[in-house]
TrEMBL record, chains A, B:
GO BP: any one term: L-histidine biosynthetic process
Protein family (similarity comment): Belongs to the histidinol dehydrogenase family.
GO molecular function, one term: histidinol dehydrogenase activity
This protein's name: Histidinol dehydrogenase
UniProt entry keywords in alphabetical sequence: Amino-acid biosynthesis, Histidine biosynthesis, Metal-binding, NAD, Oxidoreductase, Zinc
GO CC annotation: cytosol
Cofactor: Zn(2+)
Gene3D superfamilies, alphabetized: 1.20.5.1300, Nitrogenase molybdenum iron protein domain
Documented EC number(s): 1.1.1.23
Entry-linked InterPro entries: Ald_DH/histidinol_DH (IPR016161), Histidinol_DH_CS (IPR001692), Histidinol_DH_monofunct (IPR022695), Hstdl_DH (IPR012131)
Summary of the function given for this chain in its UniProt record: Catalyzes the sequential NAD-dependent oxidations of L-histidinol to L-histidinaldehyde and then to L-histidine.
Residues that coordinate or bind substrate: 233, 255, 258, 323, 356, 410, 415
Amino acid sequence: MKILDNPAKDSWKKQLARPVFKTKEINKIVKPILRKVKRNGDKALFKFAMEYDHVELDSLFPSEIEIQSASEALDPALKEAIQVAKANIERFHKAQETPELVDEVMPGVVCKRKSVAIQKVGLYIPGGTAPLFSTVLMLGIPAVLAGCKEIVLCSPPNKEGKIHPAILYTANLIGISKIVKVGGAQAIAAMTFGTESVPKVDKIFGPGNQFVTAAKQTATKYGVAIDMPAGPSEVLVYADASANASFVAADLLSQAEHGVDSQVILVTETEKFAKKVIKKIDEQLENLPRKDIAKKALANSRAVLMDNAEEAMELINFYAPEHLIISVEEEDKAVNAVYNAGSVFIGNFTPESAGDYASGTNHTLPTYGYARNYSGVSLDSFVKKITYQKITPEGLKNIGPTIEIMAENELLEGHKNAVTIRLKHLNKQNK
Amino acid sequence: MKILDNPAKDSWKKQLARPVFKTKEINKIVKPILRKVKRNGDKALFKFAMEYDHVELDSLFPSEIEIQSASEALDPALKEAIQVAKANIERFHKAQETPELVDEVMPGVVCKRKSVAIQKVGLYIPGGTAPLFSTVLMLGIPAVLAGCKEIVLCSPPNKEGKIHPAILYTANLIGISKIVKVGGAQAIAAMTFGTESVPKVDKIFGPGNQFVTAAKQTATKYGVAIDMPAGPSEVLVYADASANASFVAADLLSQAEHGVDSQVILVTETEKFAKKVIKKIDEQLENLPRKDIAKKALANSRAVLMDNAEEAMELINFYAPEHLIISVEEEDKAVNAVYNAGSVFIGNFTPESAGDYASGTNHTLPTYGYARNYSGVSLDSFVKKITYQKITPEGLKNIGPTIEIMAENELLEGHKNAVTIRLKHLNKQNK
């Protein structure tokens, strides 16, 4: 972990640069996959399962028995933990419901706004090194709460052709029944174009490797929406001497273990504290099963010394971290100064992993600087807000002349006429 | 306007297809523009003003005098109309504010969600055939209400090097002071990369021709967000015998006059009513200054006869119109069955132009079928919703074991350790 000592503002961009990806090469692999799924449907999915998951599937769906035995196979303590997390996530996402807005802006002119579920959504749950059942909770719970009519969950099968029991159990627990054994770019393609088994959806959610990310980006060209642009996970910890160096080290490592391209940043005042944290990282690292991954991620990472608290906050907002941990004496002041971050973790006893699993907030958050212009996934991500207006004859008399003058001055006579013809009709009636 | 008689469901996609665009050819023109602005900054903008706007600019900014004389040049009746519209739009968008959400999901585990303004936004206001000062209201008002720190408005100069006085007046009225004389793809490029005069922004809003649309799409590759994917404007009118054929004709024409690629659809039960509307269209068309445009748009348009009201609603949701006018006897039933639409206009006295200008709803809406998965512009479009969590030592004792078990089962020991190390510390303290 390199230490930067009060870097000049014009060097921030370079010094805090995130890893760059070779999108061209990845697209060269992803585009033919999309094309094949579009053309050959399920047949292509079975073929890709052989090629990438090394398994010959009988069916793209898990059997009843597979789902039932998933629950039986799981440690009761894990099931209970998943239920606790579910309750918290459900509670905090239910609280995000936007009540219907009705407002009579002028006598006889009523405007309304209502949340309406996106009808068909697709959730992608990676398999790979870790069975991300927590992501099933984070995407599935708001989808169910929003009232999406069709919820499809795609996840790759293992070499035995099965989906991890914790993923099946969690999906079943929250009421998602359409589970498809397909992973990677081919899963995104299936949900984009539809196949015999996989419905075409309106919006695709979920994390994934660079192939999944590239496929989601390409999917947007075919009318599908996606949750957000993706990049590797990241955390920035802002800590002063009131923080516990061991806790800070553990938090930085919890992010570094995600992947070799993860980035972790420490912002602090003194070199002394930075060195203390680095020492604790070295100690803790040795006990981590994923230490090789974490070591590589730490090579991309920085400890930034900032003398001035205001400038420190400026740098943090410039970086716009996905996860921001704030462990400083003047906590409120720092928290209130945040304007670019995905999710904020406050104080010495709020590890980032709390939000990853169970505090109730969503863990699908904008990375790679997108916290400047994107929100994390929330109940909002699964609805559209449709507006309505209803104008009475009285109301049209009130607002009509305003519309007529504006339309005329935008040289849109047809727009004006839609009002004029109605006002004339009303005037005739009055006579 | 072609009449379709109860088209079979599997033909809807083909029969209601929207116009297709040659994006490749447009991108060939747009990409070098982006590259040149990125490389040469303001110098490129001055050059493009010569090339595309046919004017040699002294400055990219309107002078104080230009802004002052804009207000003087304007008809007082127009100024008053703009003020009425402003009041309604402001009122309905202010009502969209999301209060801060704070919830103690478990004892000692507090989650929070807060709306925070996107810091820098760019608004694009087309010049061209019509001076769209109404779009200044629709984008500027929520940007100001959200509290965006920097609001840049770009609009092309006319041949005298001026911006239309109604655009200047409206921008000034709502408090937007950063106005830049630049249009087309070069304006989008300037806001994406930043130049000496134009700040780089986080999110770009606004309508435009195919070059602007293509430039916005490309801009997203450089970390900028955009309001939504764009397409030509469209309206679908759902009417029965209780509707007034002249009103329906006027509404269809008000949309058809937008552009040759606009699409208007009538859905109704009987051929008799459809023919009545078509007759009224032919009559009204003759008096429209933009009748040549409207005629071409009508060639893309359809009257669809649907015997069955439920299937009619299914077809409407399938089409997912930007604007949906509902003028039927069983109005509530129809309105409640809508799940894919940008904005809905209810009853015989609610012309679509009301929403375009002054009812209070936003006129920046998802077209081209994107009403399936996108909302129109609203106050939400100018904020991010950041989540926060704060856990007390007591709270971590409550939720910690849940996190530990889940992290362990996702094979993320580092995530688990961030909790374990804190719980151990707390247990030691208690002894």
